[in-house]
Amino acid sequence: MQGLIHHVEIFVSDLKRSKEFWGWLLEELGYDVYQKWDKGQSWKLGETYLVFVQAEERFLDVPYHRSRVGLNHLAFHAASRAKVDELTLALTERNVTILYQDKHPFAGGKDYYAVFFEDPDRIKVELVAPQNCY
Ligand SMILES: [Zn+2]
């Protein structure tokens, strides 16, 4: 549909590590592998795909930081609060850093049920349940 996100491409510091993380997460959310080549991989859901590409060595001296200019975080719809809970547990088991643990799952507000966590490059990722959907 016109105006919806067509794709997002993200450079990563370690493609193998990012593929393991994002492959697991995106497939949990219903994405399928879309494109695959030696320097990158993408996953697609509906009309949107996300691409992860190995950054060139010469650009790795300055690491990503989500507080700098550029992407701060990516947020995904979860089917329900139960799915947020299920994935929070699975993320914990995978030793993924969960952010704002003291306020979880209401770090985004009292009617906003979500989990916030970090990808391997510390890009913030958010998974949010629909309102009033348990
Ligand atoms: Zn957000």
Automatic annotation (TrEMBL):
Keyword Ribonucleoprotein among record annotations: no
SUPFAM superfamilies in the record: Glyoxalase/Bleomycin resistance protein/Dihydroxybiphenyl dioxygenase (SSF54593)
A Pfam short name: Glyoxalase
Protein name per the record: Catechol 2,3-dioxygenase-like lactoylglutathione lyase family enzyme
Keyword Amino-acid biosynthesis: no
InterPro entries: Fosfomycin_Res_Enzymes (IPR051332), Glyas_Bleomycin-R_OHBP_Dase (IPR029068), Glyas_Fos-R_dOase_dom (IPR004360), VOC_core (IPR037523)
Ranges of residues in domain VOC: 4-130
Keywords: Metal-binding
Domain of life: Bacteria
